[in-house]
Amino acid sequence: MTANPDNNVRTSSESEAVESRVTSFLDSTGVAYEIVEIDPDFADTAAFCEKYGFPLENSANTIIVASKKKPKSYVAAVVRATRRIDVNHTVKQLMNVGRISFAKAEETAELTGMMIGGVTVLALPPELPIYVDPGLMDLDYVILGGGSRSIKIKISPDIFSAIPGALLVEGLTGD
After folding, report:
1. Per-residue confidence at 1, pLDDT binned at 50, 70, 90?
2. What are the strands of the beta sheet with 142-145, ordered from one edge?
3. Strand ranges inside 81-137, DSSP E
4. First to last CA, the chain
5. Which sequence spans correspond to the domains of the chain?
6. Is the torsion defined by CA of 140, 31, 149, 115 positive or negative?
């Protein structure tokens, strides 16, 4: 599925399709979850937490990182919203490439089929390596994107053990 990278605009059917893909994946894991329906204008993490009363500490961002040289390679990293991803050391070493950067919005949308503000570790392409901040495992619950800007997922950190190939990586954040 290809997302429309222009201003994160999607048709209702595109949003429903990605949300369905995410919830189908969740259902396959057997991990209980709650869908939090939101106003798309408040999908960005800080705005979401402020409007809906969730602690920033319990929110996680899924960030796509890309190599600079072709052929391009990508990874997904999931980190607490209160932490900074260590791109220049830990992620660069894990990718084993020369130079890396955050993927552009257009690349992220094309690769994941999801909208910026809704990108989630759930239902990513199976060939995409996934690195997870182990600090997330200490939380009672985690808020993740739902694939679109209209929903968030409230779920146990146990979900990270249910995602095929997801690796807990010490030092993923430069605390």
Report:
1. very low
2. 33-37, 151-155, 142-145
3. 100-102, 130-132
4. 35
5. 6-168
6. positive
Pairwise CA distance, residues 9 & 84, whole Å: 27
- Using an 8 Å Cβ cutoff, are 158 and 103 in contact? no
Distance from the Cα of residue 24 to its chain's centroid:
16
Which residue's entry shows tokens 């189908």?
A: 24
pTM exceeds 0.85, yes or no: yes
CA 75-22-25 angle, to 5 degrees, is 90
Of the candidate CATH numbers 3.20.20.70, 3.90.960.10, 3.40.50.10490, 3.40.50.300, the domain formed by 6-168 belongs to: 3.90.960.10
Question: What pLDDT score does 175 carry?
Answer: 63
Q: Is the pLDDT of residue 6 over 80?
A: no
pLDDT tens sequence across 97-137: 989 999 999 999 999 999 888 999 999 999 999 999 999 99
Measured CA to CA, the distance from residue 143 to residue 32 in angstroms comes to 13
